[in-house]
Write a structure and sequence with these properties.
Blueprint: H1 2-22, E1 33-35, E2 40-49, E3 63-73, E4 78-94, E5 104-122, E6 127-129, E7 132-145, E8 159-172, E9 177-191, E10 220-235
Antiparallel strand pairs: 1-6, 2-3, 2-10, 3-4, 4-5, 5-7, 7-8, 8-9, 9-10
Length: about 240
Amino acid sequence: MRITSRLFIASLLFAPLASAEAQVGHAPTSTPYREILHGQSLSFIAGTFGGSGGKLGIGPHDSHTYGIRYDIRLSTPLQIGVSISQGNFKRLIVDAFDSVANRVKGPVTQKVTMLDLSVQWNLTGGKTWNHLAPYFGSGFGLAFASATPADTSGYKFGNRLYIAPNVGVRFFVTDRLHLRLEARHTWWKLKYPAAYANEPTKQPAIAPASNAVIQDGRLQQWTGGGQLMAGLGYAVSF
């Protein structure tokens, strides 16, 4: 009984000290961290896409893009986003049958649409730090382009799966409104037609020389381009 009484008195004496120790750090009103209250958002996105179009310049590159994106947070740090964006990309046309001096034409424009699933890891979890919420992740998607009638060599960009590792940050203007800035690099595989490995009809070379567009036999290439994106997002609920 005496031991119990002493423990009770000790708890009363040390309770204020424990309370004071728990408050060490940032007071609730001055902490730089704020809860992200809403787990879903809809954003308008726009950006620029760079790149070279591969070793021949016939892949899509150099374009402004625009679209919409929907995000949902699955857990404190993890969220996914789905988006659709589009742009008028530049590309060259290489005619495998023409002479060396005349076979490269363009650039021409080609409309490319990108459907994207983004997996995003929020570095500050479900909070912002000084209104900032940095993240990293990757996009996985499908890009498809309109045909270019002037391309007579059989090359088509077609439908291309891609991967796009990225880093970014969101700035929360209010609990519902935020700005997004993201840098990513998109990788897809180009497949060149077999005609590129053959001698051009208008200027064939005599072996061992070659005037073929591709002389090493490599008819596939991983390429793509860097992309800088900005967005304006607003919290929604469905």
